[in-house]
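go over this record:
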Amino acid sequence: MSMSSSDPSNLAPDHIRAIAPYQGGKPIAELAREMGLQVEDIVKLASNENPLGISPKADFAIQEALLDIARYPDGNSYVLREAVSQKFNVTPDQIVFGNGSNDILELAARAFLTPGCEAIYSQHAFAVYPLVTQATGATGVVVPAKNFSHDLSAMLAAITAKTRMIFVANPNNPTGTLLGKDELFYFLKQVPRQVLVVLDEAYDEYLSAANKSEAISWLAEFDNLIISRTFSKAYGLAGLRIGFGLCHVSIADMMNRVRQPFNVNSIAQAAAVASLADDDFVERSYALNQAGMMQLTQGFNKLGLKFIPSFANFISFTVKNAAEVNQKLLQNGVIVRPIANYEMPDYLRVSIGLFSENARFLEVLENILKSNQ
């Protein structure tokens, strides 16, 4: 049906009307309504959340912060800024805080992208990169992936005089692939200094000590580097929406100019400060994830299903009739993530849950596959 000329959406610019909004994982309550299921009978393994919840220290800090909820939050996040500065050995003015790391990606785009310039990102990379690019009117340039990972050589070759920004996810969502540190460092050395590189490290806490990012130490050498981190994954604060960016002070200054004055609420700030002080909780989250990853990969091997080896807290696997299998999983109260919109129609992505949740998923999946034979 053609759009009426009086439709007020026509008042929006073309690049905004062309955006397909981001679709998050299906909420538990929504599935319960749709399928007539009990909330307690549903397992959600769709959104890469921490199955352990949050740090006990963060829980206590949240209760304390609630007492002052009638006050505006500190718009400069002073206490959290000091905590991040000390934890990651950066200066306070190198830090930008966001309403989740998605906000950091958007602030970078809003501060530096304009119509007529280009942003580069990989095929099968996080869906927010094209969204924030398109929202500015800039042109997105998709570089084909290599074995479901970023092809850094091809991304370098895609740089033109119009290129303003490159997005790199490491590990990548939804494929879970990891770029080698030497490979990434060499890439940064090759990128022209007038091109900003946004390095999205949302899953860094799930990496082994040997694989941990060293990118923060690279900030001194690359003043065109923006590192994005989040409290939504290993720290478990997904519902509070808080993330941060680390970059050159002048880049941080530009991003802060387009940031909403109170974009990080006071509860989130307090919880994040406490979370940074609880290394034990992060270590337990890492250990649970390692065990769960082994549980799921062994399960996939037993079922004869191929999967992409993952360095994050999720794993993508391939299955015949993925959309149909996903629907049957939903009918059985198990929520995973279909990733056809990432040009991976034969794959589903499952987050690592508790041992019992992983077992439930594998059991239901096995029954579905048997019934499909």
